[in-house]
Design a protein that fits this description.
mainly beta; single chain; 4-stranded antiparallel sheet; 4-stranded mixed sheet; 22 strands
């Protein structure tokens, strides 16, 4: 690009839809990738072996089935003068050779005043745990923590889980311990890899922290587990694209808030942000906590409280047959006096599901 451009929309048309996992679009202002491609025989680059990709800046992403999202005039992705547009296509594993070609339509915005949409990725570098690793025959929770510098308006969010993903939840905590729930998908499927746009942009102030909680089921009961029998699941495993990432799209806090009338999104209504399945009161808690929940069928339950380092601090098991909860609405109350002030994860597990909420203990 010889001059700076702003992009309102990107449209992709892969030929082999069944083989494309997702596409990442970035900009490279160093010329490194263009030089590497010029010195490479054949078409394009194998991104697993190039070094310049780490110097590029993520612009946006696209998943199969996602329709074109068009920003309002005056808002868009910024491509600096002299930058190269990078298309990184991630393919699913295949045992046969395939040929593919992708066409891309770029819709520019030539107005003079712009609000830049920035895309950031919360990834394995932000995990609380040392690495993405799920032992065979285990259901494990993994967590991200990302502190936000500067004031922003969050306009969309896109969680990405490995194929053994079971559920995901993302929320933000402000400097006054105010909590904003951003998204929860209780039953994860690969078909849910979309950019989810908020009806009204979510304000994220400087000093806020974004937390994400992903549950991964590496047992034989998970029909999506590619290993039969289960094997240890790591970064390098089969079908381990985007093991656990959260993509955020933001505009600066001085920019206007974005409403549903401003953004045209092709995501169907059934892919909207879902509600939560249990409630903590009071939250923040002082000396005791009540958990209210609803069960579709009779089940024993286990409540586990973890600190931010995933150390188990408290567990309440109701597993005896005579203590099973019947289908319907229930609540349980327990003391929190043994928990120091701080932020925790409260996990409620039934015989068929797991869900997690953030808990604040404050005195």
């Amino acid at each position: 690009f010889t001059q700076q451009k702003f992009v309102r929309a990107l449209e992709f048309n892969p030929c082999t839809l069944a083989n494309v996992h997702h596409i990442e679009i970035s900009v490279d202002t160093t010329g490194t990738l263009a030089n590497e491609e010029a010195n490479t025989t054949g078409y394009g680059l194998n991104f697993s072996s190039v070094t310049g990709i780490n110097q590029s800046r993520l612009l946006s992403l696209y998943h199969i089935g996602e329709r074109v999202t068009q920003f309002p005039l005056g808002m868009g992705y910024r491509i600096p003068a002299g930058a190269d547009l990078i298309l990184q296509v991630h393919y699913l594993p295949t045992f046969v050779s395939i040929d593919d070609s992708i066409s891309m339509n770029v819709f520019f915005d030539d107005t003079t005043v712009h609000q830049e949409v920035k895309t950031i990725a919360i990834d394995e570098n932000d995990l609380i745990e040392p690495e993405f690793f799920v032992i065979k025959n285990q259901i494990k929770n993994l967590h991200h923590i990302q502190e936000i510098c500067g004031d922003w308006s969050l306009i969309s969010i896109s969680p990405q889980l490995a194929i053994i993903g079971k559920s995901v939840k993302v929320f933000s905590v402000g400097t006054a311990n105010d909590t904003t729930d951003l998204i929860q998908i209780q039953v994860w499927e690969n078909s849910l890899r979309y950019l989810y746009y908020f009806p009204l942009a979510q304000g994220i102030t400087s000093g806020s922290t974004i937390y994400s909680d992903g549950t991964f089921d590496n047992t034989e009961n998970n029909p999506n587990n590619p290993y039969k029998p289960p094997a240890n699941f790591t970064h390098d495993c089969l079908n381990c694209e985007d093991d656990f990432k959260i993509y955020l799209q933001l505009i600066g806090s001085t920019d206007c808030m974005v409403t549903a009338e401003c953004i045209v999104s092709g995501i169907e209504e059934q892919h909207s942000i879902s509600s939560f399945d249990f409630l903590l009161k009071p939250n923040p808690a002082n000396d005791q906590l009540t958990i209210s929940f609803s069960l579709p069928s009779a089940s024993a339950i286990t409540v586990t409280v973890y600190d931010l380092n995933e150390r188990m601090k408290k567990i309440i098991s109701l597993n005896a047959e005579e203590e099973k909860f019947t289908a319907g609405n229930h609540s349980i109350t327990f003391s929190t006096l043994d928990l120091p002030q701080g932020i925790y994860f409260c996990k409620l597990q039934t015989e068929n599901s797991i869900s997690t909420e953030k808990l604040i203990v404050q005195r």
